[in-house]
Amino acid sequence: MSPVAEPIPAATVVVMRDRAGGPPELLMVERSRAMAFAGGALVFPGGRVDPGDHLFTHAYPDAAARVAAIRETIEEAGVALGIDDKADRLKELRAALYGGAPFAQLLEAAGLTLDLDVLVPFARWLPHGLPHRVFDTLFYLARSPEGAEPRVDGNENVRLFWITAQGALDLADRGDAMLIYPTRRNLERLALFDGFESAMAHARAFPIEPITPRVQTRGGIDYLCIPEGLGYPITAERLDRAVRA
User: Fold this and answer.
1) Each residue's pLDDT tens digit in the chain (245 positions)?
2) Which of 43, 111, 115, 199 has a 20 to 30 Å separation from 171 between CA atoms?
């Protein structure tokens, strides 16, 4: 019997910008195919919670995950959430983070503070019982900073772009992009909204409970399913069609 992997705490953020006359656009990252997790897939910026993310003091019980979501968005996309920054300073901050400098020390040296209130809890995904590496991931929503100009990091990702939730789903359905199971389910949910305000209201109307996909057999066919009642319009996909990282 294969050992069960211990979940790794992680955080990701759906950066959203409203558009006049159309659904909001989301910032998506195409991961390098060389990456062990979700290589080649379209995902939202994010990553694991590092020890240094726990050094920030805040009333939120999920403060470390919020810090990780902000830090990873800077590293992967060059977009600063909850920080009053200037473009040149953000570039220096991003380079220092890639160099391994602690986030807390960098902010203190620059006289910057984090506003964790910019992140709205959206979901928590927690695979269970798998023999490979799994992540206990908190998903957040955030409004895009005014004038944000995402830039590819050239390391973990190969492309950054703005796209509507339905647009990303259409790319995958045409075979022009790969979406892992959690990303697809979240995009289907995000496609319900006409702007950040409606997305935020919807997120706050549902509990943040661990979502653990389970295999269920229906009519002789195996489906990968998630619980009902957590805001997702589609809760099952044929197992042979589901993409698991």
Assistant:
1) 455 568 899 999 999 999 988 999 999 998 766 555 655 789 999 999 999 999 887 889 999 999 999 999 999 999 999 997 666 678 888 889 988 889 999 998 888 889 999 999 999 999 876 556 789 999 999 999 988 888 886 667 778 899 999 999 999 999 998 999 999 999 999 999 999 999 999 999 999 999 999 999 999 999 999 999 999 999 999 999 998 76
2) 199
